[in-house]
TrEMBL record:
Keyword line: Membrane, Receptor, Transmembrane, Transmembrane helix
Record-given protein name: GPR157
Subcellular location: Membrane
Family affiliation: Belongs to the G-protein coupled receptor Fz/Smo family.
GO MF assignments: G protein-coupled receptor activity
Lineage: Eukaryota, Metazoa, Spiralia, Lophotrochozoa, Mollusca
Gene3D superfamilies: Rhodopsin 7-helix transmembrane proteins (1.20.1070.10)
PANTHER family the UniProt entry points to: G PROTEIN-COUPLED RECEPTOR 157-RELATED, G-PROTEIN COUPLED RECEPTOR 157
């Protein structure tokens, strides 16, 4: 269903149905439950004094980003359910009023979504980078500990600082806000008061661009990992045949 109201960009405002909102709320709740299960399992492992591997730690950081995304989208869906973002008044006024709740939700989901994309790519890269590590016992010398600490610091810097800088810049420039359901679902993201070009650019910079990059980077990393494993298997067979 399409309303016959438009903002100054000339786009039609699509009505988000109750089914859309129900699906959003359901998936967000399931994501939160799944994240809590991961937290509980890793917490039990830590409490027992067992070693938590680096991939599991990276999964934990990814889960933290994902649970913030789910909470943000859940808040956005509930806000949309009881709000009037697609009312004729707000559409014609291009949502000029300052909605702090909408901006806060947009800030949270924008940053956490970008962090999630970064952590997903980093996990793929980490598996590739460490695929030839011969020491799997968990006992590392001092230089290896230092290398891994630096590596983890870089991971955190990329996954939190870069999305944070982009999101803070977007908020400072007034980019975040209600898009009147033009470019997203029942939540806030990029303000509909921007021009077509501005909105497209900021959608790419604050989410879609990183999402597409993540798809291709993960594909490349896992293909290289598979190729490396195949080469290692061939070398192993040659050694066995020689013996």
């Amino acid at each position: 269903m399409v309303h016959n109201y438009t903002n100054f960009t000339g786009e039609y405002i699509k009505k988000v149905t109750d089914i859309d909102i129900a699906v959003t709320i359901t998936t967000c709740c399931l994501s939160i439950i799944g994240a809590l299960i991961i937290f509980i399992n890793l917490g039990r492992t830590y409490k027992r004094g067992e070693h938590i591997s680096e991939p599991k730690k990276l999964l934990l950081y990814l889960t933290i980003a994902d649970i913030f995304s789910a909470i943000g989208f859940l808040f956005g869906a509930i806000r949309f359910l009881y709000g009037d973002d697609i009312s004729p008044e707000k559409v014609l006024a291009c949502h000029k009023e300052n909605d702090s709740g909408c901006i806060a939700q947009s800030f949270l989901t924008t940053m956490s979504s970008m962090s999630s994309f970064w952590w997903t790519s980093i996990i793929a890269f980490h598996l590739l980078w460490n695929s030839t590590d011969q020491n799997q016992s968990g006992s590392f010398n001092q230089s290896e500990h230092a290398r891994k600490d630096i590596q983890m610091f870089v991971y955190h810097l990329l996954s939190w600082a870069v999305p944070g800088a982009i999101t803070i810049t977007a908020m400072a420039k007034g980019i975040l806000g209600s898009d009147l359901s033009v470019g997203s679902g029942a939540w806030c993201w990029i303000s509909a008061c921007l021009s077509d070009n501005e909105r497209t650019i900021w959608m790419a910079v604050s989410g879609k661009g990183w999402e597409i990059l993540m798809y291709f980077s993960c594909l490349g990393f896992y293909m290289l990992l598979k190729f490396r494993q195949k080469c290692a298997m061939i070398r192993s067979r040659r050694v066995i045949n020689k013996n």
